[in-house]
Structure formats: C-alpha cells, structure tokens
Recover the amino acids of this structure.
C-alpha cells in the first residue's frame, strides 16, 4: 500500500542529506579463523518510525575475540546491540547463538543464553550497594533466598579473576564512573556471560581507567569470552580489537583488522570521506578579560573542599583548556562558574559582573553557554521532544515566548535550525530526545549552546561520545567562536582535545591549578606528569 | 498499512486504550462476581446504566456528582506533572469550602461579584492549605505525601471544630440545634443553573470544570510557567541547569493544585449544598487520585474519568433497587478498575497490547505521560 511506503521502503540514506552517498568499500574478510563462531547475526533489519536503524546487518563473533564495532553517531550500533540483548526485536533477520537460532524477548532471555551488556548509559541503582545491584533481578531465581555474603564472595572472586577491583558493600552512588562500570561488567560476569557487549565503555573513563579496561578485556578474551566493543576512539580500536566492522547509516560498509587499518583509514570508512584528525587554527588574538576567578573554593556533595583556591582568567578570543584527570575538582569548578553550586570563598566575575553568588539564570543571561558534562542528567530532558529541548534555557524569552505563552512556531523552527546546522541525525524534531543515539543527543546540546548569543562558552567534555567526523566539525566550530571573540573555557579528560584546541592550558590537580602554560610550552608527557601530581 | 505503521499506531493510541479496557475488564469481573454470588448481573447493570447515564434525570445527577471529582482529579494530576504526589486534595477541598462559606455568610453582594469572589476565596483557601506542604517540601525536603495526608486530618478535624464549637461560636449555625453545619450562604453567591423538566438543577459547576480542564491542558502545553513546573518535575537537574528554581516550582505547583481542589470545595458549597456540614462530601479528594490515575493525568481524560466515577456512584442506587445488591458492589468495581490500571500488565496481556517501549516502564512509579 502506498501510504506505508515512506516509513518502510525509502532509502534510509536519503534522510541524511549531503553525506549520504555510499562509496565502495572493499570488504576484507578474515581468513583461517579456527575459533568457533559463538554469535551470528544474519540480515538484521530494524526500523523505527522514519529511520531504518539497521539494514540487513550481518556479523559474526568468535570465541575469544574482540570485535570492534565502529560507525558514525546514529549508524545503528547501539540498536543492533540492543537487539542482541533482547531490548528491541528485529523486524527481519535472525540471530544464532552457538549455531542455534535465538530470539531474545527480553534481556532475561539474553542473559540466560550467556549474553551480557554494559550500556552506553549505566543501568545501576545508585542508592543500592554493589552487592544489591549485582543481585538485582537475579535474587530469587538463583539462590532461592537473598544471601548477601555469598554474593559478595562471588563478586570478589570474579573481581580477582578478571582484575576488576570493587568494594562489594559500597553504595553505587559513592563510586566514580570507572568503578560503576566495573560493577556493570561484574554484573554481567556474575550471570555467567560468555558474550559481553560493551557499548562505548571508554567514553566516560579517564585514560588510565581506559588502559585498565583494555587489560580487563584481554583477560576476558584469554579466558574464552567473546567481546563486542563499541567506541569512537580509533586508537583503542587499533590497540585492542581482533576484527573491526564498520557500520554506516544502518549498513555494514566494511570489515578489516587492526593490522590492515590506520586511524585515517578507519575514519574514512566510517564517514565516507577523509577526516582531518587535527584542526587548523590561527594564532589567538586575546581581548578583554571575560571570566575572572579569584581564590575560589568549592565543596562537593560530601562537603570536601574539592576546588581549593583556584584563580584563572579567560579572555575574549581565547581558549583556556583545563587538563586534568577526572575527579580533581573540574566538575565542581564548572558547577560553581555556572551557578549550579555555591562556592565557599573567592570570587567569580563574568564580563565585569560579580556573579559569585548568582543563580544559573542570571549567569546565563550574561551570555554564558554551558555544555554540561553529564548530558542525560543536566543537558536534556530525555522524555521531551527535541523542540522543547532546543529552548531549554531560552523558553521564556522572545521569540520563543510572548508574555507567558510559548510560541510553538518559533520553537519548532529553532529546533529544525539546530538539527540542520549540526547534522543531528533524527527523522523529525518532534521525536523524544531519548530516541536519538547517544552521540546525536550530545550534538544537539552542543548545537543549542552554540546557537546562543555568546560571550563565554563553558564546555565540559564537549565531544564525549561523538564520532570522529563530528568531532572535527565541533572543533572547527569552537575555533570559529573563538575567532568571533568568544572566551572559551574547555574542560576535557582527553588530553588530545586539550592540545588540539587550547591557547592556554591550565593543569588541575587535587583542586589546585598546578600550572598554567601556553599550548606548546610543555610536551604531552610533561603535561601528563603534572596531571598525575608530579608538579606538587 | 505496513507493519511499522501499525506498530506506530499502537504506540500512539494504546495508552488511551488501556484505561478503557481496564474499565471494561473490571465490569466483566464485576458481573462474574455478581453472577457467582447468585445475583442477577444483567438487572444490576441495566439498573446501573439507567441510574447513571440512561435518563436525563440520571445524567444530570451524574454530572453534578462528577464535578468535584473532575476538578479534584485535575488537582492531583497538576501536582503529578510537577513531580509531586498530592494526596491532600481532600483537605484542600475542605479549606476551599470553608473559605467560600465565610464569604457567603458574611457578605451581601450582587451575584456578578459575589460568585467570582466565592470561587476565588475557595481557590485561595485551598492554595494556602496546599502551600504548607509545598513550602515544607521545598525548604526542608519533607515528603509531600506524608504532609498532605497529615494536612487532610487537620483540615477535617478543624472543620469539625469550627462548625461544632459553640463557645465561642465560630462557623456553626446558631439556629441549628444539632450543631453539625454552617449557616446557609447568601442567595447572591449561589451558582445559577438550569432544570430540564423534572431533573435536579444543573448548576454552573460543570462548566467551570470543563473550563479548568482545558485551562490546565493549555497551561502545561502552551505556557512558560507550565513548562517550568513540568521540567522541575521530570528532571530537576536539567531544570536547574535551565535556570529554573526548583523550590519555587514545587511551591507553585502545590499552590495551584490546592487552588483547584479549593475551587471544587467552593463549587460544592455554592452549587449543591449551600453549607458545610460535618459529613460534607468526604472521600472525594481520595477518589480524585483514582480518577487522575485512570486518566493517566491527562486533563481531558480526567473529564471522562470523573464522569465515569460520578456515574458509577449515582447509578449504584438504582442498581441496588433493581438487583437487590449492596451499594458496595460499586466500590468493588471501582477498586477493580484501579487495580487493572495500576497493574496494566494484566490488561496488556489480556488484550495482547504490545509493551510500551523501554524506559516507559510503569506509569504509576514514573510519570503520567511525561510531557
Ligand atoms: N528508541 C528509538 N526510537 C526511535 N528511533 C530510534 C530509537 N533508538 C534509536 N533510534 C534511531 O536509530 C538510529 C540508530 O541509533 P543508535 O542508537 O543505534 O546509533 P549509534 O550507532 O549507537 O550511535 P551513537 O554513536 O551516537 O551512540 C538513530 O538514527 C536513532 O535516531
Ligand atoms: Mg550508541
């Protein structure tokens, strides 16, 4: 019937405008693999209203290997994994586990067949302990009763065996992201997963933690587990993968191995064009001081002084990058600067206004945009449509409101503009933000913050979870804003990102700025040393 | 239609279908219960229908009875959209009713002023009462469920005392020897209405309820303040990030909710009873939670859910006469409806309605339709 056509049979690529052509990519097949296939997906197709997220995707996973899945934001990686894990069901195609057809109706089925998954956004209950989180959903079936002690012992055993340090009785809310992720992995292993899906596990990790994870992955494969590993960091892929499969717009466009690939070739395969892995930028022309922080002290939720006497200045037309291992006070510093957290002492001035005790609205109205570090917590309301998310901070101002009445037309128009400007992959601006892929949610937030009339941009982890092509674009946009005279405070856990963008680099360690240098004055290694506390 | 179009259709409309099927299922189970205990379920249901919607007279009674359920249902839903469980519509209704009585018994004004003044007094009374819970929540984090329940008790006892006290004489009617009611309000503050043939007078309250239904829907959909309250309820962190004061939103949402319940109380005083008595319409504020739940917090849905609720209660009497059943059968059916709504997995299983997508788990624990 004709009316059904648009949703189902239109070329999915046509939705995506200019990058939508499919160049020929030769498929490199791995030969002589002795290992048995533990999981096979055949011709999987999955459609969402207006999008074909997976289009006849086939792939194989062998015992003891790491299969890396690469692809742009919205290419369909998480969707495919969610199908394997029983969260979605495919419209067509079949899945074989150990050669047997398998259709998971729920994660419960998948777990029963030995498939575990660590999600892009964690699924832990923060107010519960590690033990309770691991037991959750498994309580009655396995033990017949709740025995914390036994479970804790089992957790410690897994922890020792695979090198995953955790404290079984700690509350999840008190753990840092790295530890939470280890809990997620332990949870899967506790359920005897032989196939482990890791959806962008390294996006939230410090480089040190990411290295630890790579080690864990090696231990797991050495013990016969099979892993599917999704990441946007090409270096990790080359380091840890046995085979690499690349998706674009829902289709498999190529398969390769780290031996045959390079970062540049992988990037080109993902995006369909060659990507500049470095941004071009001219010398900065700093103007007047926009942000001036003096002796700032901020406490965290546990009342610890995590920002202890920070002073810094950012000028118009200049990018100050704050380098540092996560958890050294950067989060609280940004919260204090944006009015989300009260400071204990010191002063903050923005464009000549003392905003030390101002609220977020007052600060925002001075022309301060904030790309928050935790996008799903602060940056977006996942159950609201993109239209409303596009005016999260500006909803009350003209043209988005006249008096107290919101102006639907202007709101929709604005969202469309954001989606177009930053190439956010979505079938419409009326869909819930939660239906966007993780990276596209991030792109939408970045687009929204960039669309404002800016004096100061505070960007915390602006490219977390974003694909290489879009990183290139966002980096260019940040430079462009700088050249237009915006002051930029960049906080990033990626030293590469700091080095690529910053004019000045401030290294933060234990709540102090231990060094402020021009970019280029210190080598990567020297900076790394400072970040690790070598400057004290 | 293609498969995905059908799925899309289901995803869009199954939320509205589940409550309807829940009601249907509850009626079927009710019929089974009546039949199995030796009753005549057909006579009972015919009586129920005729006594509720079947005749103009019954219909008018149903509408009058439903009005406070609709308005209080809105009071519960409005708070819920802002992330608050308002269990206190009952107390807020009493607070509003008392304020309206004070205006109605102490003043003589032309109706054009007196009627709006009575409604405003009711709204302010309810709002003030609810604000106590709102302020406690916003300033100290004290949970609104506990506080609104406590405020219900206080409101009920306070009403009792205000009416019954003779020394000093407070709101009681000196002419009433039993000491169980207030004086009647002035003629000028009584809601006008129409009587169609032999029906009771259909007062303006229902019109007010309909206006409020669409007003609340418009408020959340189209106003900036509605957006703020919604966002503070859905994701307080994002609300703070967006420059919204979450404590202020909590206080405002409770005040608005209380204002609605207060209007319901004032409407009962001004349209039906013209007084507050010790056995004033108790229970409405609690049943309103059920009404809001049945409608999944959707204002227009509340209009229908409220009418259904009032209809069941109004029709119960004729059902009792026709089938010789206890009026409590209606309470059982109402309880079954709520059960099937709360445990909508049962309904979805019975009628093979596909699961909602991930992340949209149980409405009761998460939210009524979110945006
Ligand atoms: N629940 C959903 N409802 C509607 N559309 C969806 C849903 N989940 C995903 N999509 C769409 O399917 C496509 C693929 O999304 P998916 O999350 O699989 O991407 P991804 O490859 O994991 O991207 P990222 O790298 O950004 O995480 C996207 O275009 C997205 O808009
Ligand atoms: Mg993803």
């Amino acid at each position: 019937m004709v009316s059904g056509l648009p949703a189902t049979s239109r070329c999915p690529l046509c939705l995506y405008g200019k990058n939508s052509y499919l160049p020929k990519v030769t498929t490199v097949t791995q030969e002589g693999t002795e290992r048995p296939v533990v999981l096979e997906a055949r011709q999987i197709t999955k459609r969402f209203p207006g999008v074909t997220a997976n289009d006849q995707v086939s792939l194989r996973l062998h015992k003891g290997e790491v299969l890396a899945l690469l692809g742009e934001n919205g290419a369909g990686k998480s969707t495919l994994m969610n199908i394997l894990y029983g969260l979605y069901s495919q419209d067509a195609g079949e899945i074989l586990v150990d050669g047997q057809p398998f259709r998971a109706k729920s994660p419960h089925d998948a777990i029963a067949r030995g498939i575990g998954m660590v999600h892009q956004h964690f699924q832990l209950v923060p107010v519960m302990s590690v033990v309770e989180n691991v037991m959750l959903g498994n309580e009655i079936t396995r033990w017949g009763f709740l025995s914390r002690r036994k479970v804790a012992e089992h957790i410690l055993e897994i922890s020792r065996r695979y090198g995953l340090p955790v404290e079984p009785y700690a509350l999840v809310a008190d753990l840092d992201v790295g530890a939470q992720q280890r809990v997620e992995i332990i949870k899967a292993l506790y359920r005897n997963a032989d196939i482990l899906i890791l959806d962008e596990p390294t996006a939230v990790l410090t480089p040190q933690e990411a290295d630890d994870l790579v080690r864990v992955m090696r231990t797991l494969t050495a013990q016969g587990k099979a892993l599917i590993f999704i990441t946007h960091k090409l270096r990790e892929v080359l380091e840890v993968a046995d085979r690499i499969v690349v998706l674009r717009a829902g289709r498999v466009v190529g398969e390769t191995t780290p031996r045959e690939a390079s970062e540049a070739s992988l990037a080109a395969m993902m995006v369909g064009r060659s990507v500049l892995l470095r941004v071009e930028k001219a010398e900065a022309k700093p103007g007047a001081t926009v942000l001036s922080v003096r002796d700032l002290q901020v406490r965290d939720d546990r009342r610890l002084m995590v920002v202890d006497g920070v002073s810094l200045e950012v000028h118009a037309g200049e990018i100050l990058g704050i380098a540092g291992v996560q958890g050294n006070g950067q989060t609280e510093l940004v919260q204090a600067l944006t009015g989300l957290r009260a400071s204990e002492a010191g002063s903050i001035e923005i464009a000549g206004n003392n905003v030390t005790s101002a609220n977020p609205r007052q600060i925002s109205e001075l022309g301060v945009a904030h790309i928050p570090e935790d996008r799903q917590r602060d940056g977006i309301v996942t159950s609201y449509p993109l239209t409303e998310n596009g005016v999260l901070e500006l909803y009350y101002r003209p043209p988005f409101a006249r008096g107290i009445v919101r102006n639907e037309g202007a709101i929709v128009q604005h969202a469309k503009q954001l989606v177009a400007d930053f190439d956010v992959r979505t079938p419409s601006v009326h869909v819930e933000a939660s239906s966007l892929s993780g990276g596209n949610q991030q792109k939408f937030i970045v687009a929204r913050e960039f669309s404002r009339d800016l004096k100061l941009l505070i960007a915390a982890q602006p490219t977390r979870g974003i694909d290489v092509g879009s990183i290139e674009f966002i980096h260019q946009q940040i430079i462009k804003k700088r050249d237009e005279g915006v002051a930029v405070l960049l906080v990033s856990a990626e030293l590469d990102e700091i080095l690529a963008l910053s004019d000045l680099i401030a290294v933060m360690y234990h709540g102090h700025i231990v060094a402020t240098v021009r970019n280029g004055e210190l080598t990567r290694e020297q900076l790394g040393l400072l970040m690790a506390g070598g400057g004290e | 239609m293609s498969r995905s179009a059908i799925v899309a259709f289901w995803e869009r409309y199954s939320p509205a279908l589940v409550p309807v099927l829940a009601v249907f299922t509850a009626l079927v189970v009710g019929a089974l219960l009546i039949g199995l205990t030796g009753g005549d379920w057909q006579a009972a249901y015919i009586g129920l229908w005729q006594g509720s919607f079947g005749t103009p007279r019954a219909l008018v009674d149903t509408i009058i009875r439903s009005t406070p359920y609709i308005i209080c249902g809105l009071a519960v839903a409005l708070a819920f959209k802002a992330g608050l469980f308002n269990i206190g519509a009952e107390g807020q209704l009493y607070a509003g009713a008392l304020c309206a009585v004070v205006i109605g018994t102490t003043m003589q004004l032309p109706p054009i002023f007196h009627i709006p003044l009575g409604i405003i007094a009711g709204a302010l009374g309810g709002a003030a009462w609810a604000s106590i819970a709102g302020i406690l929540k916003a300033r100290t984090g004290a949970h609104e469920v506990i506080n609104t329940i406590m405020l219900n008790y206080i409101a009920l006892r306070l009403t009792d005392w205000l009416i019954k006290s003779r020394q000093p004489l407070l709101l009681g009617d000196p002419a009433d020897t039993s000491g169980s009611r207030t004086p009647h309000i002035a003629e000028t503050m009584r809601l006008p209405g129409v009587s169609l043939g032999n029906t009771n007078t259909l007062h303006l309250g229902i019109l007010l309820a309909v206006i409020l239904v669409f007003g609340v829907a418009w408020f959340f959909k189209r106003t900036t303040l509605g957006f703020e309250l919604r966002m503070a309820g859905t994701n307080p962190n994002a609300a703070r990030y967006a420059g919204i004061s979450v404590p202020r939103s909590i206080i405002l949402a409770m005040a608005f909710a209380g204002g609605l319940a207060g209007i319901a109380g004032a409407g009962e005083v001004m349209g039906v009873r013209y007084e507050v008595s010790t056995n004033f319409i108790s229970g409405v504020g609690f049943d309103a939670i059920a009404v809001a739940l049945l409608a999944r917090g959707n204002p227009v849905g509340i209009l229908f859910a409220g009418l259904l609720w009032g209809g069941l209660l109004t029709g119960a009497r004729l059902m009792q006469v026709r089938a010789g059943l206890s009026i409590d059968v209606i309470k059982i059916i109402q309880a079954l409806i709520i059960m099937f709504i709360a445990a909508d997995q049962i309904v979805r299983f019975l009628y093979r309605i596909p699961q909602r997508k991930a992340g949209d788990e149980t409405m009761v624990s998460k939210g009524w339709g979110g945006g």
User: Anything to note?
Assistant: Chain A has a mean pLDDT of 87. Chain A touches chain B through 40 residues (CB under 8 Å). Chain A has 19 helices and 22 strands. The first strand of chain A starts at residue 37 and ends at 48.
